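dumping this here so i dont lose it
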C-alpha cells in the first residue's frame, strides 16, 4: 500500500470518515477515592447514584490513569490528557491557565505563577496550605496589599482567583519560567526554596524568592493568611487547538477560573454559567445546538477530597447524580463521565490511584 502523497490526503480521509454527532465530556474533578476504613466503600460507592447506575448499565465502564500509571497528576496535565493531548510534550505550569481564566492580560515574556495564601506557625512550618480557605473577599484585600511590587525592575502583579487562590505575574526583561515551586504540597514542613532549573532562569528564581520574603513581612499580622506559596511558573504556550486536531467545535462549561483558562488555551469557547451544578447543566442545554463537543467541569468533589471531608464528597457526587437527568434527556451521541485524577478524602490530596470512567454511546457495546 502506497503512503498518502500529501498531508492533505489524511485530512480528506478524516473528513470522509467523520460523522455528525454530539459529545459531552463530564469531568468530576478528583472523582477517584479510597475505601472508608469503616465501610470498605469509596466515596463513589457510598453515594446514592441511581442515574449514574443506570448510565453504567448502558455503558462501557472501567478505570484509567489519565497521565500514566503510578503518577499523581496535577489538574492541568490530567485535563490535557483527557482532551487528547500528550501531557508530557504539552506540559504547562498552573500559572498561565489561572491567569487566562481570570482574563489577566498576559504579555509576551510574562511569567505567571499560581499562588495560595497559607498559614505558617511561629517556626515557619506550613500548618494549612489554604489558610482555612479564606473568603474571596479576604483574598481580594490581601492581593491589594501585594500587588504592584517592583523588584529589580520586574513588575509583579497579584490578582484574585477565588477563595485562597491568586496569581502572581512577573513582567520584565530576561525572565524564564523554569524554576521550582515553593509549595511543598504538604503540611508540617517549611515552604521549599525556589531554585532555577537552568542558568537562564536564575533571575526569575531570585525575583520570586524576594517576592515571597516581602509577602511574608507584609502578611505577618494577617493570620491565618500569613504567608504565600507559589507553584506552576509558566509562560503562555502555543498548542494546536482541539478544533484543529479533531475537527470539532468545542465549548467549555466550568465555574472555576483555572479550568476556564485551560479550555481557552486549547481553543474552546468558554460559555458563561453560574456556580451550581444545576446552572452548568442548564448552560449545556441552552447551548446544545451550537457546538458538537462540550467539556463540563464539576469542582466540588476535588475540594471536599482535599479537605478530607468524605461525607461532603459523597453529597456532591449525589448532587451531580440528581442533576444528570437534564443531561441524559438531551441524548448526546457520546457521553463520558470520569475524573482528571483521584482525590481520596482519606489522603487529603491528589493521588496516583486510577480514576473511574463511564462511556455511553450508540457506537459502543455495553459491559
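and the seq i came up w/
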Amino acid at each position: 500500500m502506497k503512503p498518502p502523497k500529501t498531508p492533505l490526503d489524511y485530512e480528506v480521509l478524516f473528513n470522509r470518515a467523520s460523522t455528525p454527532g454530539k459529545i459531552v465530556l463530564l469531568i468530576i474533578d478528583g472523582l477517584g477515592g479510597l475505601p472508608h476504613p469503616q465501610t470498605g466503600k469509596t466515596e463513589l460507592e457510598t453515594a446514592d447514584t441511581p442515574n449514574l447506575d443506570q448510565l453504567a448499565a448502558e455503558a462501557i465502564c472501567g478505570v484509567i490513569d489519565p497521565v500514566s500509571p503510578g503518577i499523581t497528576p496535577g489538574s492541568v496535565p490530567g485535563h490535557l490528557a483527557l482532551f487528547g493531548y500528550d501531557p508530557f510534550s504539552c506540559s504547562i505550569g498552573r500559572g498561565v491557565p489561572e491567569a487566562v481564566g481570570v482574563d489577566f492580560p498576559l504579555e509576551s515574556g510574562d511569567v505567571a505563577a499560581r499562588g495560595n495564601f497559607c498559614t505558617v506557625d511561629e517556626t515557619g512550618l506550613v500548618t494549612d496550605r489554604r489558610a482555612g480557605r479564606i473568603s474571596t473577599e479576604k483574598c481580594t484585600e490581601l492581593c491589594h496589599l501585594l500587588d504592584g511590587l517592583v523588584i529589580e525592575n520586574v513588575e509583579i502583579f497579584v490578582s484574585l482567583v477565588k477563595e485562597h487562590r491568586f496569581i502572581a505575574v512577573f513582567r520584565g526583561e530576561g525572565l524564564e519560567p523554569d524554576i521550582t515551586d515553593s509549595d511543598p504540597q504538604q503540611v508540617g514542613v517549611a515552604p521549599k526554596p525556589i531554585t532555577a532549573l537552568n542558568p537562564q532562569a536564575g533571575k526569575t528564581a531570585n525575583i520570586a524568592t524576594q517576592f515571597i520574603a516581602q509577602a511574608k513581612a507584609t502578611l505577618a499580622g494577617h493570620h491565618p493568611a500569613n504567608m504565600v506559596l507559589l507553584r506552576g511558573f509558566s509562560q503562555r504556550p502555543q498548542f494546536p487547538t482541539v478544533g484543529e486536531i479533531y475537527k470539532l467545535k468545542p465549548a467549555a462549561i466550568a465555574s472555576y477560573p483555572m479550568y476556564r483558562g485551560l479550555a481557552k488555551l486549547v481553543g474552546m469557547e468558554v460559555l458563561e454559567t453560574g456556580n451550581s451544578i444545576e446552572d452548568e447543566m442548564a448552560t449545556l442545554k441552552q447551548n446544545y445546538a451550537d457546538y458538537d463537543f462540550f467539556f463540563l467541569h464539576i469542582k466540588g468533589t476535588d475540594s471536599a477530597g482535599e479537605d478530607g471531608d468524605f461525607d461532603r464528597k459523597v453529597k456532591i457526587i449525589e448532587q451531580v447524580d440528581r442533576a444528570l437527568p437534564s443531561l441524559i434527556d438531551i441524548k448526546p451521541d457520546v457521553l463520558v463521565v470520569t475524573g482528571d485524577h483521584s482525590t481520596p478524602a482519606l489522603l487529603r490530596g491528589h493521588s496516583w490511584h486510577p480514576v473511574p470512567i463511564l462511556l455511553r454511546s450508540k457506537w459502543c457495546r455495553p459491559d
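Residues 26 and 34 are 21 Å apart (CA to CA).
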